[in-house]
Amino acid sequence: MSDAPILEPLNLVTDFDAAGDFEKKHTPYVVAEQVDGAYKLTVTVGHEVTHPNQADHWIGWIELYVGDAAVARFDLAPIVTAPVVSVLLDLEPGTVVRAVEHCNLHGLWAYEVAL
Ligand SMILES: [Fe+2]
Known about the structure:
- The chain is mainly beta.
- The chain has one domain (10-114): Immunoglobulin-like.
- The protein is built from one helix and eight strands, in the order βαβββββββ.
- The chain has one helix spanning 21-26; strands spanning 10-12, 28-35, 38-45, 59-66, 69-75, 84-89, 96-103, 107-114.
- Strands 1-8-7-4-5 form a five-stranded mixed beta sheet, with no helix packed on it. A three-stranded antiparallel beta sheet has the order 2-3-6.
- The protein starts with 9 loop residues before the first strand and ends with a strand.
- The model has no long low-confidence stretch (mean pLDDT 93).
- Bound molecules: fe (ii) ion.
- Fe (ii) ion binds next to loops.
């Protein structure tokens, strides 16, 4: 469950390639690959355009959702962690996974992929 303020808007990016630099800097870009019958999802915040990772501006967490269910969460500290995480998920082909990240200055950003 997210600890973000309830009223904070969610920025859902639907076309990464068409996004501008500010959007690309914040969009949780997802790559899915099949590994032994499961899916390995790697989420990168800052794909193509690097996001700052400093004490006053960083990515605090990344979550993965299937529908309304949170299936993974990663809490990140500034400076020492890069906003790149991977997890294995045992899901059916075609399942839609939503990645959500939180920037302490620029809020919530999301991106969806169908497996
Ligand atoms: Fe930011």
